[in-house]
Design a protein that fits this description.
- It is a single chain.
- By secondary structure, the chain is an alpha+beta fold.
- The protein has helices spanning about 1-25, 45-55, 85-95, 105-110, 125-140, 170-180, 200-215, 230-235, 255-270, 315-330, 350-355; strands spanning about 35, 40, 60-65, 70-75, 80, 115, 120, 145-150, 155-160, 165, 185-190, 190-195, 220, 225-230, 240, 250-255, 280, 285-290, 295, 305, 310-315, 335, 340.
- The radius of gyration is 43 Å and the shape is elongated.
């Protein structure tokens, strides 16, 4: 009975103490509450805002480091600042939440001080911009390797591949935000990764495929006369290109798109032909001589004939480039070149009817 009575008295005392604290600190922050080292216990919402207002303009910066490259991100560049109103509201709720409407939490705060985490705001678009700046300055694209081919000797050399460097943007944004929450200047290592790239042996295999392809010329067929493209001319367009998959490490022998236009133009100049218009032919009028020997002529009915025209041929640049590229990828030395027929501007019937 005595133990039960003692427990009851202790419980009643704690309840009365909690009620007293809640009444005494109504509209105020409970004792033992601190924010960023600033004691706010017993002060009103307005006074707490004034105390924290001195901290809201705190100059902070995070320096991102990668090797010898450094980028400083200042708080004002990303709109980072202390949200005074939200932080004060959080401090007011401290010790008033939990089971039994926070009665136990209120008593516990009288014994153990509580540090309330501040609330910060920032402009996400500005933060993303600074992350993009870091990515441009530090990141580098991977190089799949390349071919250096002498059109005269057909010697094929290799440009070695190089791995890329990718800035982890989400991790960088988190590192900046975390660093700015710490007072003063903070140095952070820029989060990066090196994706798996192409091995030199793969580029050597593509170079060997190029040497094999250049042993024979490319023969183009289709409408018009066949055309042979020499190995030396093909050497100018061969290149390392991505494979059929999405992975960076897949490469194959292909063509350089920026050099194909010159080759297709050369082909077009040799295979294209202009359309020939239909022509009208008629016998010349007979000549007459009078008694004085003067020459003259008399109009007579004559049969006018139409000489047939001929359609022209035009190479389709984009389709021709794709046909040649496919032949290179598949190791073929014969390809059918797509062409378009270009009809004459005037048909034979129109020429006969117009009398031209």
């Amino acid at each position: 009975m005595r133990v039960a009575a003692l427990i009851g008295m202790l419980g009643l005392g704690a309840l009365l103490l909690t009620i007293g604290v809640r009444i005494a600190y109504s509209g105020k922050i409970l004792p033992g509450t601190r924010v960023m080292g600033v004691g706010l216990g017993g002060v009103s919402k307005e006074e707490a805002g004034e105390r924290l207002g001195d901290l809201s303009s705190d100059r902070r910066a995070v320096t991102l480091v990668h090797g010898d490259r450094r980028l400083e991100v200042r708080a004002n560049q990303v709109g980072f600042q202390l949200d005074v109103a939200a932080t004060v509201s959080r401090a007011l709720r401290a010790g008033r939440l939990g089971p039994l409407k926070g009665w136990g939490s209120t008593i516990w705060r009288l014994v153990v001080p509580r540090t309330v985490a501040p609330v910060y705001t920032l402009r996400r678009a500005a933060l993303a911009h600074m992350v993009a700046v870091a990515a441009r300055r530090v990141g580098r694209p991977a190089f799949r390797g390349g071919l250096v081919i002498d059109p005269g000797t057909l010697t094929v050399d290799v440009l070695p591949p190089r791995s890329g460097l990718v800035v982890e943007r989400r991790a960088t944004a988190e590192a900046i935000f975390s660093g700015l929450r710490r007072p003063g200047g903070v140095t952070v290592r820029l989060p990066t990764r090196n994706p798996r790239g192409v091995a030199r042996q793969q580029v050597e295999e593509v170079a060997e495929a190029a040497r094999s392809y250049l042993r024979r010329p490319l023969r183009l067929t289709g409408a018009g006369r066949p055309l042979v493209v020499s190995a030396g001319r093909m050497a100018r367009v061969l290149a390392v290109e991505p494979g059929t998959g999405d992975h960076l490490a897949e490469i194959r022998l292909g063509v350089a798109p920026q050099r194909m236009s010159a080759l297709v133009g050369w082909i077009a100049r040799r295979r294209d032909r202009a359309a020939v218009m239909p022509r009208l032919t008629a016998p010349p009028p007979p000549l007459t001589f009078d008694s004085r020997g003067d020459v003259g002529w008399r109009p007579r009915p004559a049969e006018i004939r139409v000489r047939s025209g001929r359609a022209g041929l035009r190479t389709v640049p984009s389709a021709a480039a794709e046909v040649i590229a496919a032949a290179v990828r598949e190791g073929r030395h014969r390809a059918r070149l797509p062409t378009e027929l270009v009809p004459p501007g005037v048909t034979e019937d129109q020429a006969a009817g117009c009398g031209i």
